[in-house]
Amino acid sequence: MAPLTPRLVVPIDVKKQPWEQEVPLHNRWHPDIPPVADVTQGELFRVEMVDCTGGQVRDDDSADDIKSLDFASPHYLSGPLRVVDAEGVPASPGDLLAVEICNLGPLPGDEWGYTGTFEREHGGGFLTDHFPSARKAIWYFEGIYAHSPQIPGVRFPGLTHPGIVGTAPSAELLNIWNQRERELVEAGHESLKLCQVLHQRPLASLPTSHNCLLGKMQEGTAEWEKIANEAARTIPGRENGGNCDIKNLSRGSKVYLPVFVEGANLSTGDMHFSQGDGEVSFCGAIEMSGFLELKCEIIRGGMKEYLTPIGPTPLHVNPIFEIGPVEPRFSEWLVFEGISVDESGKQHFLDASVAYKRAVLNAIEYLSRFGYSKEQVYILLSCCPCEGRISGIVDAPNAVATLAIPTAIFDQLVDICV
């Protein structure tokens, strides 16, 4: 018997704003955001999603939309979805939710995306001190390939994936998030020892009711105000999965997510046509609207069996990801090294962020010799299928990071000619 067509549980109309969608979207994490639909273990279902900004970025040459983007809005997520077994019993706290990505892609008729870097005051990017102004590149899709009029001479296959797949936190876990991130912000930059050269960026995005979207909850009520001021932003990945931005999480992949609330309340969004490891420009994958076709399995008691807490409570766990068999194949790479010595010559102790920053800067300096501006290369390295690695983390005082770029994405030779 032929498999059934996936059941559409969250439809999207890209001509409408996020708050106008038939099935309400949300842009925060909170245990009390009500589910918009039930899905049954083993069924194949389809979730559609807007791009991470909800359509604020336009298909044109101007970066004014990136410059004026309201940073309190991203990410707009589809869900939450309540997951139940064949008998209708919902997933329970302590279970493990296995989410299989069966299919995915751009929404038909909306086959384009964008990569950008924010203004410094809106969060900047990994290299804000070098690139403080907003920039944007538009990408058009031809099957599995993407090309951009803003970065000519480049074409590559995309490894499409969702940036965000996560479950709802419990009230206890939400309080842990908010407390530790608030303490980080209140302590300020001076309290930090690692990643000192990155401190021009915001330390964390704390809860705010500004531009908060809570799905089916009615804005303006006392309950909405309470939850809006507690709900966690979707910017970082956390114990629930969330914004992990794992570029290889494509067709055939599985995510094993901890369940913290009844029903798991699964949400997803932030679809990417392609991304480089690190997504260094921050708005840095090829962002797009899209769809996922998923299947879920509830592993009863799976958190205790498979996830070991690394922290003071049983909630301090992290998901496990099983990468699928689909990825672009490249045979020739240019690899750039970085060490934990910053641009001023200051030695840092085993700081992998400094080392990766140096590797990215080295790649930008080299590729800008071939007719590209440094801004073009910065955006390209954020979204092309490049591979980032921590190559050494024990040989004091230098951490060593590498960035490998497939040379086949260029229409010219970028090798060193001897």
UniProtKB/TrEMBL annotation:
SUPFAM superfamilies: Acetamidase/Formamidase-like. Transmembrane segments: none annotated. One of its GO terms (molecular function) is hydrolase activity, acting on carbon-nitrogen (but not peptide) bonds, in linear amides. PANTHER family: FORMAMIDASE C869.04-RELATED. NCBIfam families: FormamaseFmdA. This is Formamidase. It comes from Aegilops tauschii subsp. strangulata (Goatgrass). The lineage of its organism: Eukaryota, Viridiplantae, Streptophyta, Embryophyta, Tracheophyta.
